[in-house]
Amino acid sequence: MDKILEKKTGWKKAFTKQAIPWWLGAIFIIIVISAIATTSKSTLLVKAKAVTISEVKEGQFNEYIRLNGTVQPMVTVQISPVEGGMVEAIMIEEGADVRKGDEILRLSNENLDLQILNSEAELAEKENILRNTQIQMEQDRLNVRQSKLEYQQNVKQLKRVYLRQKALYDDKLIAREDYIKAKEDYDLALEKYQLIREKEVQDSLYRNTQVKRMRESLENMQLNMKMIRKRKDNLTIKAPIDGQLGILDAVLGENIGGGTKIGQISNMSSYKIEAQIDEHYIDKVVPGLITVFERQGTIFKATLRKVYPEVHDGKFKADFKFDGKMPDNIRTGQTYYMNLQLGSPEKAVLIPRGSFFNKTSGKWIYVLDKDGKRAVKREISIGRQNPRFYEVIEGLEPGDKVITSSYDNFGDNDILELQ
């Protein structure tokens, strides 16, 4: 008796003998697609000796930047004449040491000399006017006083006449008209005497006020005269501080305007270091940061004292002051190569700096396989950097080996075959 076979359906049908050709076809298609994908990646043959291979390591990332600092005097004073004029004599040459008050150069100014002569003449004229006015006022004062004495004497005389006439009139020995005339003469003399007294007071007040004003005017002219003579003194340029005359831009016979910078004096007792820093670090560079540098086998430290806000040509300026001892034989203009610390050391995955960054900008890198014969392009992410290392955020692990030399000759190839 024949056995009836059950017909397979659903997923069980995939494992029947009839499905074997379909499985073989699918496997063939997958192999073909894989082969196509593999061959689509471009490959370049590279000599192993022509590239630099570095190992990815884990270590302390020390964030700092390398700076070129220039030694400058801490204090520099600009020399500018207050009064303009023609250079008449140069007493001290550029580069010489000077003491405060030393004469550096002398100017001449004919217009200023003429102003001084005119002011002196005007002052003398004012003094003569004041003296003449005082003499005239003194004469007027004496005349008024003399008139006052005469009126006073006249009042006394007319008063005696008036009193005598009054007594006679009371005794009815004289006519009324004589009595009235004597009284009127006395009253008039008395009023004149009062007027001359008032005039004496008013003249005294007026005289004092006028003399005061003239003296004030004279004092102002004398003060103006002193100021003009001081302008004459300003024609001699003197050293404002002790130091070294670094620049002197003046030539005999040259006409220099007031306020023009003609030189500078540097105080050589203290120094600072000026450095130009890339604007990329402008948010991280703040006063108080420490920088170190080596000089003659000795490590020196300096502290960032001032950050200038202006940015020129992609850089900004910063000043550093020495911490403690300064290098021997320090000179203005010397260059120090400094490491400016931007933060505390932190544990991170590191790769050495290399020219590959110029082309990839840290977005990808060639990573070697285990046998070191092939390098494959891999996407990575780089964070901070210092003069020695890049900080790897993702894409690489400690122990990976990468190519860090220039990629300029590799084109856009995905795989490098090392020979």
Describe the fold and architecture.
This protein has 419 residues and is of the alpha+beta class. It is built from four helices and 22 strands.
pLDDT averaged residue by residue: 84
Say how many strands there are: 22
What is the general shape? elongated
What Rg, in angstroms, do the CA atoms define? 53 Å
One letter per element, helices H and strands E, the order comes to: HEEEEEEEHHEEEEEEEEEHEEEEEE
* Fraction of residues in β-strands: 25-35%
Runs in which pLDDT lies below 50 for 5 or more consecutive residues are 1-5
Number of helices: 4
Quick synopsis:
With 419 residues, the chain is α+β, with helices and mostly antiparallel strands. Helices cover 34% and strands 34% of the residues.
Secondary structure elements and their pairing?
Blueprint: H1 20-40, E1 43-46, E2 53-55, E3 57-61, E4 64-79, E5 85-90, E6 97-98, E7 103-108, H2 110-170, H3 176-233, E8 236-238, E9 243-248, E10 255-256, E11 263-278, E12 290-295, E13 298-312, E14 315-322, E15 335-341, E16 346-352, H4 357-360, E17 364-368, E18 374-379, E19 381-385, E20 389-394, E21 401-403, E22 415-418
Parallel strand pairs: 1-22
Antiparallel strand pairs: 2-21, 3-16, 4-11, 4-15, 5-7, 5-10, 6-9, 7-8, 9-11, 11-14, 12-13, 12-15, 13-14, 16-20, 17-18, 18-22, 19-20
Helix pairs in contact: 2-3
Name the features.
single chain, 419 residues, alpha+beta, six-stranded antiparallel β-barrel, four-stranded mixed beta sheet, 4 helices, elongated
